[in-house]
Amino acid sequence: MTAPFVLLAAGLCLCLGIAGPATVTRASSTKDISTAHLAPLSSLLLFGGYNASSSSQYLTIAGILSLASTFSTDAPPITSLDPLPFPTSRLVPVITSRGGNGFDVHLSNGVMNGQLGNRTFTYTVTANGSSAPKVKLQSKVIEGNVQVPFAPAYVAAASTKMDAMDGGVNWAVGGRYYPEGPFVDKMWVFGRDGPPSAEQQTQPSPSPRADAALVPLNGTHLLLSGGYTTNTSTTHSDMWTYSIASKSWLKYPHSTTRPRSHHALVVFKHKWVVLIGREPPLVEVMEWTWGSKPKVAEVKGTGPQGLETTAAVVVGTQIVLVGGLTASEDKDDRLIRVLKIQEVKDGAGAEALAFEWYRTKFTNTFVFDLDCLTFLGHNQQVKHFHPTALRHSPQLTIAFP
Q1: Which CATH number belongs to the domain containing residue 326 in this structure?
Q2: What is the pTM of this model?
Q3: Cβ density class 13-33: b for 16+ within 10 Å, e for less
Q4: What is the DSSP letter of 347?
Q5: What is the domain extent for residue 335?
Q6: 163: part of which helix (H) or strand (E)?
Q7: What is residue 160's three-state secondary structure?
C-alpha cells in the first residue's frame, strides 16, 4: 500500500491509506467532498466530506489543489485553507465572478453530524499573479429558511462554466427525508444569495429518488441520471434532460447499461457524457447530442473497481476525481485520481472515447478548448440534432434517433 496522504486543517488530520482495524471495510474512506474548479486560476478547491472510517466522520477540511503544473497523484499539491465553520458533507457549491479579479465560492446546505445543514458561507478567491490565488473564508454566515432533503442530485464539482449561467447557479433534484421520511421529486435552485428557492417543474418529470447524478449539458439543459428509491436495491437506470428556460423534463430514450446511484457525471467537449461509479463496470460513455446508447467504456491501467460519491471535473483531456469510497480489497486508496481521455475510432469507424488511469501523474498539458474558460451554451447551437426533433427551448433542439 502506498504511503498515506495527510491533509491538515485547523488541527484535523485526515489520513488516507493507513490500514485500520478489521472493522474498516473501505480502503479509501472519504466521500461526499464538494469542489470548485476555477479554470482561469488553474485551481481546484476542496470542501468538507464524510470519512467512513473516522470517529469524526463529518469534516471541516478545505484545501486548494494546484492544476498549474504536472504532479504525482501520490503527492498532490494541496494547500490547506481556512476550515469550514461547521463539519459538513455534500455541500452545494456555487461560483460567482468578482469582475476579473477572482471568484466567490458559496457553499450551502449539506449534511452535518447526521442533520441537514441550513446555512451558506463563502470563500473569496483572489487572483495573485503567477502565484497561487489567495483564499479567505468570509465571516458572514447566512441562515437559510429552506431545508433541502438528504442526498439530492446536485453538481458536486462546480466550475467556472456554471458562473456564466445566470451569474452563478447550482441545482438540487430529489432526495429523501432521512431516516423514515419519503423520497421526493422536487427541484431547488441555488444562487449567490445563499438559501435555495423551489423550482416549479412541468410534468412529466423523474420519479422521486435520492443519490442520483446531475450535470449541466450546456448553458440551457441539465442531465439527471439514476438514483435509488425505497432502498438501495431499487436503483434506477433512466436519464432525463431538463430545460432551464421552460422548466420541463424530457426522458432520454436509452438507459444506462446498469442501474446506477452514488455516481458522477461529466461532459467532455460539449457532446460526450461520461458516467463514473459506483459499481463495475465503472465507466460508461455516450454521445448525447445524437441520443446514442450508453456503452461500457474501455479503461486501461490500474484504478479502482468501484467508486462511490466521487466529485469529478474535466481538465483538458483528463478527468480529475476527488475522494470516493472504494472496496476494502481495492488497493487504490488515493484522494486524487486522474482518468485520461482519448478520442478514438471504434470497430465501425465511428467516434468513441477510450480511457486510461494515470496511476502516478496529472499532466498540465493545455488543450485549447474555449469551454475551459467560458461557457458558450447560451449562444451555441448543437448542429447534430435532427430538424424534426422535439424542442426544449429556442436555443436548443434535441433529437433522439
Answers
A1: 2.120.10.80
A2: 0.84
A3: ebebbeeeeeeeebbbbbbbb
A4: T
A5: 30-373
A6: helix 160-163
A7: helix
